[in-house]
UniProtKB/TrEMBL annotation:
Localization of this protein: Cell membrane
Entry-linked InterPro entries: GPCR_Rhodpsn, GPCR_Rhodpsn_7TM, Olfact_rcpt, Olfact_rcpt_6C-like
Protein name according to UniProt: G-protein coupled receptors family 1 profile domain-containing protein
Domain G-protein coupled receptors family 1 profile: 40-207
Cited function: Putative odorant or sperm cell receptor.
Length: 292
């Protein structure tokens, strides 16, 4: 290991504890969840693009949400799966760790903003239906998506820059399966309140933009996804003293990175009558083409 940790150029990820047999089971489970998540989100994107019945603001946002979800999981899960196959610790360069951290936070921030936009869309549809087509026109929806993507990538520049300019004087071993901000902060000898406040704001800034619970309660699928995603993310970052065990941190990360993306395609489609109708029609058409 490195002796002068202030000049750390790489990190060692401990990953998951346990035997090789347990790692094989975890690999198969997480690979299944990851594959289903990718396939489910690709189906959503495909359906939204080809069927005119899904050409509405809600499905427009859902398509972009699916893209973000695929990218977010792809930034972290493949590295986690690779670590499960290795006999020892996974070595990650400082540049790769910084890149992963930035992409994960930026895509996650954009995803939460789109969640909020979808909730507002449902709020307008339910509470002000007569002005829905005026307020949620194609121009507005396009700008909402652009702002979500751009703001997500701009907002996380400073937190990531500040994190990787800390002095890592304790160790270069991360007790996690990816470059987690909390674990990086634990390895740092810069224990200023400013850095702790920065980590705190990373978790509460976006949830505070969700306005009233009535907004998301208009759609059960939104409520379910927001509860899982926000509660897990809050657990990861709202712990200023970082005293929680690493095992709980890993579980919360798995909820955000594996379980929630696995559930979202089912939540947003199975509870949606129009989408299931379109899906059945497309499957029926494909069956007829193959039959002929």
């Amino acid at each position: 290991m490195l002796k002068n940790y202030s000049s750390t150029i790489e990190f060692y990820l401990l990953g998951f504890p346990g035997s090789k047999e347990l790692h094989n089971i975890l690999f198969a489970t997480f690979f299944f969840f990851y594959s289903v998540s990718l396939i489910g989100n690709m189906v959503i994107i495909f359906m939204v693009c080809i069927d005119k019945r899904l050409q509405s603001p809600m499905y427009f946002f859902l398509g972009h949400l699916s893209v973000l979800e695929m990218l977010t999981t792809t930034v972290t899960v493949p590295l986690m799966l690779w670590g499960l196959l290795l006999p020892g610790m996974l070595v990650v360069s400082l540049t790769a760790c910084c890149t992963q951290r930035y992409l994960y936070l930026s895509l996650g921030t954009s995803e939460f903003l789109l969640f909020t936009a979808m909730a507002v869309d449902r709020y307008v549809a339910v509470c002000n239906p007569l002005r829905y087509n005026i307020n949620m026109n194609s121009h507005t929806c396009l700008w909402v998506v652009i702002v979500s993507w751009v703001f997500g990538f701009l907002f996380e520049i400073w937190p990531v820059y500040a994190t990787f300019h800390l002095r890592f004087c304790k160790s270069n071993v991360l007790d996690h399966f990816y470059c987690d901000g909390g674990q990086l902060f634990k390895l740092s000898c810069d224990k200023g309140r400013f850095t702790e406040l920065m980590l705190f704001l990373m978790s509460i800034f976006i949830p505070s933009g969700s306005h009233h619970w009535k907004t998301i309660s208009t759609c059960a699928s939104h409520f379910t996804c927001v509860v899982i995603g926000y509660s897990s993310s809050l657990f990861l970052y709202v712990k200023l003293n970082q005293t929680q065990a690493a095992e709980y941190n890993r579980v919360a990360s798995l909820m955000v990175l594996v379980v929630n993306p696995f559930l979202n395609p089912f939540i947003f489609t199975l509870w949606n009558g129009k989408f299931t109708e379109v899906f059945r029609d497309v499957m029926r058409s494909c069956y007829q083409l193959l039959k002929d």
